[in-house]
Design a protein that fits this description.
Strand content: 5-15%
Structural class: alpha+beta
Distance between the termini: 46 Å
Helix content: 40-55%
Largest sheet: 5 strands, antiparallel
Order of helices and strands: HHHHHHEEEEEH
Strand order of the largest sheet: 1-2-3-4-5
Mean pLDDT: 84
Shape: elongated
Number of helices: 7
Radius of gyration: 28 Å
Protein backbone atom coordinates (compact mmCIF):
# COMPACT_ATOMS: atom_id res chain seq x y z
CA UNK A 1 0.00 0.00 0.00
CA UNK A 2 1.28 3.45 -0.94
CA UNK A 3 -0.27 6.61 0.49
CA UNK A 4 0.24 10.32 -0.04
CA UNK A 5 -0.26 12.17 3.25
CA UNK A 6 -1.07 15.38 1.36
CA UNK A 7 -3.81 13.58 -0.59
CA UNK A 8 -5.19 11.00 1.83
CA UNK A 9 -8.27 9.15 0.58
CA UNK A 10 -11.08 7.67 2.72
CA UNK A 11 -10.41 4.08 1.63
CA UNK A 12 -6.73 4.50 2.61
CA UNK A 13 -7.73 5.70 6.08
CA UNK A 14 -9.78 2.52 6.52
CA UNK A 15 -6.75 0.43 5.54
CA UNK A 16 -4.45 2.37 7.89
CA UNK A 17 -6.81 1.72 10.81
CA UNK A 18 -5.98 -1.98 10.54
CA UNK A 19 -2.42 -1.23 11.67
CA UNK A 20 -3.52 0.40 14.95
CA UNK A 21 -2.66 -1.91 17.82
CA UNK A 22 -6.27 -1.88 18.99
CA UNK A 23 -7.38 -3.58 15.77
CA UNK A 24 -4.17 -5.30 14.65
CA UNK A 25 -4.74 -8.69 13.00
CA UNK A 26 -1.80 -10.00 10.95
CA UNK A 27 -3.93 -12.44 8.95
CA UNK A 28 -6.40 -9.74 7.90
CA UNK A 29 -3.54 -7.40 6.99
CA UNK A 30 -1.91 -10.03 4.76
CA UNK A 31 -5.28 -10.65 3.12
CA UNK A 32 -5.79 -6.90 2.58
CA UNK A 33 -2.25 -6.61 1.17
CA UNK A 34 -3.05 -9.23 -1.47
CA UNK A 35 -6.31 -7.48 -2.35
CA UNK A 36 -4.61 -4.08 -2.57
CA UNK A 37 -1.84 -5.52 -4.75
CA UNK A 38 -4.20 -7.07 -7.27
CA UNK A 39 -6.62 -4.14 -7.13
CA UNK A 40 -3.78 -1.75 -7.94
CA UNK A 41 -2.57 -3.91 -10.81
CA UNK A 42 -6.08 -4.31 -12.23
CA UNK A 43 -6.61 -0.54 -11.98
CA UNK A 44 -3.41 0.01 -14.00
CA UNK A 45 -4.61 -2.48 -16.63
CA UNK A 46 -8.01 -0.78 -16.87
CA UNK A 47 -6.45 2.67 -17.28
CA UNK A 48 -4.32 1.36 -20.14
CA UNK A 49 -7.25 -0.44 -21.75
CA UNK A 50 -9.51 2.61 -21.49
CA UNK A 51 -6.87 4.84 -23.08
CA UNK A 52 -5.87 2.36 -25.78
CA UNK A 53 -8.03 -0.79 -25.99
CA UNK A 54 -6.00 -3.91 -26.73
CA UNK A 55 -6.96 -6.26 -29.62
CA UNK A 56 -7.95 -8.91 -27.05
CA UNK A 57 -10.42 -6.56 -25.32
CA UNK A 58 -11.78 -5.28 -28.63
CA UNK A 59 -12.36 -8.84 -29.88
CA UNK A 60 -14.02 -9.83 -26.60
CA UNK A 61 -16.46 -6.90 -26.76
CA UNK A 62 -17.01 -7.12 -30.51
CA UNK A 63 -18.12 -10.75 -30.23
CA UNK A 64 -20.88 -9.60 -27.87
CA UNK A 65 -22.49 -7.52 -30.67
CA UNK A 66 -21.13 -9.03 -33.91
CA UNK A 67 -21.60 -12.67 -34.89
CA UNK A 68 -19.26 -12.81 -37.88
CA UNK A 69 -15.51 -13.26 -38.13
CA UNK A 70 -13.48 -10.34 -36.80
CA UNK A 71 -11.21 -9.45 -39.70
CA UNK A 72 -8.26 -7.04 -39.34
CA UNK A 73 -10.37 -4.31 -40.96
CA UNK A 74 -13.28 -4.93 -38.57
CA UNK A 75 -10.85 -5.06 -35.64
CA UNK A 76 -9.59 -1.61 -36.54
CA UNK A 77 -13.17 -0.32 -36.85
CA UNK A 78 -14.26 -1.83 -33.54
CA UNK A 79 -11.15 -0.46 -31.79
CA UNK A 80 -12.38 3.07 -32.48
CA UNK A 81 -15.93 2.14 -31.47
CA UNK A 82 -14.79 0.61 -28.18
CA UNK A 83 -12.63 3.65 -27.37
CA UNK A 84 -15.54 6.02 -28.04
CA UNK A 85 -17.99 3.83 -26.11
CA UNK A 86 -15.72 3.85 -23.05
CA UNK A 87 -15.24 7.61 -23.28
CA UNK A 88 -18.99 8.23 -23.66
CA UNK A 89 -19.82 5.95 -20.73
CA UNK A 90 -17.37 7.74 -18.42
CA UNK A 91 -18.78 11.11 -19.52
CA UNK A 92 -22.32 9.89 -18.80
CA UNK A 93 -21.32 8.83 -15.28
CA UNK A 94 -19.81 12.25 -14.50
CA UNK A 95 -22.81 14.01 -16.06
CA UNK A 96 -25.30 12.01 -14.00
CA UNK A 97 -23.38 12.69 -10.79
CA UNK A 98 -23.17 16.40 -11.58
CA UNK A 99 -26.90 16.59 -12.25
CA UNK A 100 -27.64 14.79 -8.99
CA UNK A 101 -25.36 17.17 -7.05
CA UNK A 102 -26.91 20.27 -8.65
CA UNK A 103 -30.41 18.96 -8.03
CA UNK A 104 -29.64 18.38 -4.35
CA UNK A 105 -28.08 21.85 -4.06
CA UNK A 106 -31.04 23.60 -5.68
CA UNK A 107 -33.72 21.70 -3.77
CA UNK A 108 -34.76 23.52 -0.60
CA UNK A 109 -36.00 21.18 2.09
CA UNK A 110 -37.84 22.46 5.15
CA UNK A 111 -36.65 20.51 8.15
CA UNK A 112 -38.66 19.84 11.28
CA UNK A 113 -37.16 20.87 14.65
CA UNK A 114 -36.35 17.20 15.25
CA UNK A 115 -34.48 16.98 11.93
CA UNK A 116 -32.57 20.16 12.71
CA UNK A 117 -31.54 18.72 16.09
CA UNK A 118 -30.36 15.55 14.33
CA UNK A 119 -28.28 17.59 11.89
CA UNK A 120 -26.72 19.53 14.77
CA UNK A 121 -25.86 16.28 16.56
CA UNK A 122 -24.29 14.89 13.38
CA UNK A 123 -22.24 18.08 12.95
CA UNK A 124 -21.02 17.81 16.54
CA UNK A 125 -20.15 14.14 16.04
CA UNK A 126 -18.17 14.98 12.90
CA UNK A 127 -15.92 17.26 15.00
CA UNK A 128 -15.10 14.46 17.46
CA UNK A 129 -11.82 12.65 16.83
CA UNK A 130 -10.99 9.66 19.00
CA UNK A 131 -7.20 9.65 19.37
CA UNK A 132 -4.89 6.63 19.75
CA UNK A 133 -4.05 7.91 23.25
CA UNK A 134 -7.74 7.79 24.22
CA UNK A 135 -8.10 4.27 22.84
CA UNK A 136 -5.01 3.20 24.77
CA UNK A 137 -6.39 4.73 27.97
CA UNK A 138 -9.61 2.76 27.43
CA UNK A 139 -7.64 -0.49 27.29
CA UNK A 140 -5.69 0.46 30.42
CA UNK A 141 -8.91 1.02 32.37
CA UNK A 142 -10.41 -2.11 30.86
CA UNK A 143 -7.46 -4.14 32.15
CA UNK A 144 -7.91 -2.61 35.63
CA UNK A 145 -11.64 -3.36 35.78
CA UNK A 146 -11.75 -6.74 34.08
CA UNK A 147 -11.36 -8.56 37.41
CA UNK A 148 -14.66 -7.17 38.70
CA UNK A 149 -16.63 -6.30 35.54
CA UNK A 150 -17.20 -8.49 32.46
CA UNK A 151 -15.18 -6.77 29.73
CA UNK A 152 -18.15 -6.66 27.36
CA UNK A 153 -19.89 -4.29 29.80
CA UNK A 154 -17.03 -1.77 29.69
CA UNK A 155 -17.27 0.78 26.89
CA UNK A 156 -16.27 4.32 25.99
CA UNK A 157 -17.99 7.34 24.51
CA UNK A 158 -16.08 10.27 23.05
CA UNK A 159 -17.23 13.88 23.33
CA UNK A 160 -15.69 17.12 22.08
CA UNK A 161 -14.09 17.99 25.43
CA UNK A 162 -13.69 14.67 27.24
CA UNK A 163 -13.53 10.89 26.83
CA UNK A 164 -15.90 8.84 29.00
CA UNK A 165 -15.53 5.31 30.28
CA UNK A 166 -18.95 3.79 30.90
CA UNK A 167 -20.62 0.63 32.13
CA UNK A 168 -23.17 -0.89 29.72
CA UNK A 169 -22.55 2.06 27.36
CA UNK A 170 -24.83 4.29 29.46
CA UNK A 171 -24.13 7.89 30.45
CA UNK A 172 -25.93 7.15 33.71
CA UNK A 173 -23.20 4.63 34.59
CA UNK A 174 -19.96 6.62 34.32
CA UNK A 175 -16.69 5.21 35.63
CA UNK A 176 -14.58 8.27 34.83
CA UNK A 177 -13.89 11.00 32.33
CA UNK A 178 -10.53 11.64 30.74
CA UNK A 179 -9.28 14.99 29.49
CA UNK A 180 -6.39 14.18 27.17
CA UNK A 181 -6.64 16.71 24.33
CA UNK A 182 -4.04 19.01 25.87
CA UNK A 183 -0.37 18.00 25.91
CA UNK A 184 0.31 19.90 29.14
CA UNK A 185 -3.01 19.74 31.00
CA UNK A 186 -4.26 16.15 31.14
CA UNK A 187 -6.58 14.90 33.86
CA UNK A 188 -8.84 12.09 35.03
CA UNK A 189 -12.18 12.98 36.62
CA UNK A 190 -14.61 11.06 38.82
CA UNK A 191 -18.23 12.04 39.53
CA UNK A 192 -19.37 12.32 43.13
CA UNK A 193 -22.87 11.51 44.40
CA UNK A 194 -24.08 14.93 43.22
CA UNK A 195 -22.71 14.30 39.70
CA UNK A 196 -20.01 16.90 40.30
CA UNK A 197 -16.61 16.27 38.71
CA UNK A 198 -13.55 15.77 40.86
CA UNK A 199 -10.49 16.18 38.65
CA UNK A 200 -6.97 14.87 39.19
CA UNK A 201 -4.09 16.01 37.02
CA UNK A 202 -2.00 13.35 35.31
CA UNK A 203 1.23 13.68 33.34
CA UNK A 204 0.49 10.79 31.00
CA UNK A 205 -1.99 7.97 30.62
CA UNK A 206 0.40 5.71 32.56
CA UNK A 207 -0.67 7.66 35.64
CA UNK A 208 -4.15 6.12 35.27
CA UNK A 209 -2.81 3.05 37.07
CA UNK A 210 -2.39 5.21 40.19
CA UNK A 211 -6.18 5.60 40.33
CA UNK A 212 -6.97 1.88 40.10
CA UNK A 213 -8.76 1.81 43.48
CA UNK A 214 -10.98 4.76 42.56
CA UNK A 215 -11.78 3.24 39.20
CA UNK A 216 -12.81 -0.02 40.87
CA UNK A 217 -14.99 1.83 43.40
CA UNK A 218 -16.67 3.83 40.66
CA UNK A 219 -17.41 0.67 38.65
CA UNK A 220 -18.69 -1.24 41.69
CA UNK A 221 -21.59 1.22 42.00
CA UNK A 222 -23.12 -0.29 38.88
CA UNK A 223 -22.56 -3.97 39.57
Amino acid sequence: MEINLTDLKDNQVEELKKFHKAYFDAEKIFSSANELKFTGELKTVLIKEFANPSPELVKLLAKQVYEGIITPKLLEQFTGLVRRSISNHISDIFSDRLKTALKAENTEVTKTPEENMLVEEEEKASKIVTTPEEIESFFIIKSILRSIVPIERISYRDAQTYFSILIDNKNTKPVCRLYLNSETNKSIAFLDDNKKEIKHKIKSIDDIYSYSDQLVKAAEKFM
